[in-house]
């Protein structure tokens, strides 16, 4: 599983939502954009997907790597999966100075809900290994940028996906108000950050969100936004981006999703690299 720097695949942050987006009325546009992201990722033909989400936290100073062989819902893998790739990722993090440990757990809804839409059964059966790693516990955004930077040098054609929400306040949603001011404001700030002239400035603007007066209203707890900062670390060298599910928010939730990096060129596809 060797690679060179110009073979790195783009990275994604997706707003995953809850189980309701699979069947409740009104989520058609959100579903469609997640399907488009999934088709784009499938076309990249990655060797594996490494993902982290807001429902899997490690310790404040340690990352957990799921060593359990994933469910057959997503793919049918040979016996080598369990003993090779997850352990390679774990060792890679350790080699990069990231405190990490192996655990065994099932995939949570932050993965299987959006993946059900991105790779719907009967349309695009997912035959790509999926490995979930944790975030850190707590609210250290910089630590998650560094985690992404460490992961970015993992060899192979790997797609990294941060699954969370750029605004996640279930209490506000349940109160039944119609005020989307916070969701709109935070999403606008995120779009401004994405359009920054350099990745360094982009990261600085995203890190500054934590200091906003309305941040606590967007994230009473910050576990759902941490995967975004992992994505920033993976895409530290890329200024190019694409946005999905913009302006598709309800009170307390934003489904904004984006890609950092560009897709391979037509010549790369024709040369057999895809």
TrEMBL record:
A Pfam family hit: LigB
Named cofactor requirement(s): Zn(2+)
Keyword Transferase: no
Signal sequence, start to end: none
GO MF term list: ferrous iron binding; oxidoreductase activity, acting on single donors with incorporation of molecular oxygen, incorporation of two atoms of oxygen; zinc ion binding
Domain Extradiol ring-cleavage dioxygenase class III enzyme subunit B: 29-242
Keyword vocabulary terms for this entry: Metal-binding, Oxidoreductase, Zinc
Family stated for the protein in its record: Belongs to the DODA-type extradiol aromatic ring-opening dioxygenase family.
Protein name in UniProt: Extradiol ring-cleavage dioxygenase class III enzyme subunit B domain-containing protein
């Amino acid at each position: 599983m060797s690679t060179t720097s110009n073979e790195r695949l783009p990275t994604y942050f997706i707003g995953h939502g809850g189980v309701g987006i699979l069947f409740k009325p009104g989520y058609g546009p959100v579903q469609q954009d997640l399907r488009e992201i999934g088709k784009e990722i499938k076309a990249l033909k990655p060797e594996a997907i490494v993902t982290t989400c807001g429902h899997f936290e490690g310790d404040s100073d340690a990352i957990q790597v799921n060593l359990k062989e994933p469910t057959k819902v997503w793919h049918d893998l040979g016996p080598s999966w369990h003993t090779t790739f997850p352990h390679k990722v774990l060792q890679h993090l350790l080699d990069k100075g990231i405190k990490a440990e192996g655990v065994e757990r099932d995939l949570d809804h932050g993965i299987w809900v959006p993946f059900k839409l991105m790779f719907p059964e009967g349309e695009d059966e997912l035959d790509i290994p999926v490995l979930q790693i944790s975030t850190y516990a707590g609210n250290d955004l910089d630590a998650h940028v560094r985690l992404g930077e460490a992961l970015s040098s993992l060899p192979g054609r790997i797609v990294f996906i941060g699954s969370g929400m750029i605004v996640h306040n279930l209490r506000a949603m349940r109160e039944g108000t119609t005020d989307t001011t916070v969701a709109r404001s935070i999403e606008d700030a995120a779009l401004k950050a994405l359009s920054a002239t350099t990745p360094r400035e982009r990261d600085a603007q995203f890190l500054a969100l934590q200091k906003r007066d309305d941040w606590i209203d967007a994230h009473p707890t910050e576990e759902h936004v941490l995967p975004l900062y992992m994505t920033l670390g993976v895409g530290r060298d890329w200024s190019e981006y694409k946005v999905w599910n913009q302006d598709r928010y309800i009170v307390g939730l934003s489904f904004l999703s984006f890609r950092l990096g560009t897709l391979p060129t037509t010549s790369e596809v024709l040369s057999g690299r895809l």
